[in-house]
Design brief:
Layout: H1 3-18, E1 20-24, E2 31-33, H2 34-51, H3 58-67, H4 72-75, H5 84-104, H6 109-119, H7 124-143, H8 147-151, H9 156-166, H10 175-188
Antiparallel strand pairs: 1-2
Length: 199
């Protein structure tokens, strides 16, 4: 890896730090950024793998977690409740972003291979980190009393449907934890549409 490539890596990391997600840091008006999100996913994955005794490769988990949103340097972030059209565009944008990164980091084959393996969910560790990404977002929402979800006016039915939509892609070894966690989330998620004042 050349000095130019290292400078590019730091520049891209800076851009990810500037890329704000929909979630807030709890009890603030500061939006979570992609860098802190990736760090949180890495810690969560490391801890869950040990806590649940899943026996997954910790090094792979940490590497996948650190790069799982790296394509967003060029593709940007799209909310999980976005329209089908926006999600389709997201896939196209991320594929194009990956092509750019492959060229830019041609001197860093392991780095690129890690991003590609995550994007294709090629092994259990990649699928595990994918699930940790979803769980981390829910944890952040729960810690902030679901503020960003309520701002998006996500109804209870939509919230439940999203949890069900994600479930088939959760690693089987993580399903029991995921189901228990979802039950906990559902116990506190209650969206009430604001009513117009009559007087």
């Amino acid at each position: 890896m050349t000095l130019e490539s290292l400078e590019r890596l730091q520049s891209h990391t800076n851009e990810l730090t500037e890329l704000k997600r929909r979630h807030y840091l709890p009890e603030t008006d500061v939006h979570e950024d992609d860098t802190s999100h990736s760090y949180s996913v890495a810690l969560l994955g490391w801890r869950l793998n040990e806590m649940l005794e899943l026996g997954l490769d910790t090094e792979k988990i940490l590497k996948y977690a650190m790069v799982h949103d790296f394509v967003e340097v060029y593709a940007g972030d799209v909310n999980t409740f976005a329209s089908p059209e926006a999600k389709h565009q997201k896939k196209q944008d991320e594929a194009a972003a990956l092509s750019i990164l492959v060229r830019e980091y041609a001197d860093s084959p392991d780095f690129i291979a890690t991003i590609q393996a995550y994007e294709s969910k090629s092994d259990d560790e990649a699928r595990f980190v994918w699930a940790c990404d979803k769980i981390q977002a829910l944890l952040q929402g729960q810690l902030d009393s679901w503020r960003c979800y309520y701002e998006l006016k996500i109804t209870d039915a939509q919230f439940l449907a999203k949890l069900h939509e994600l479930r088939p892609d959760v690693l089987p070894a993580l399903l029991e934890f995921y189901d228990d966690f979802c039950i906990d989330c559902l116990s506190t998620y209650h969206f009430v549409e604001p009513q117009d004042m009559l007087f």
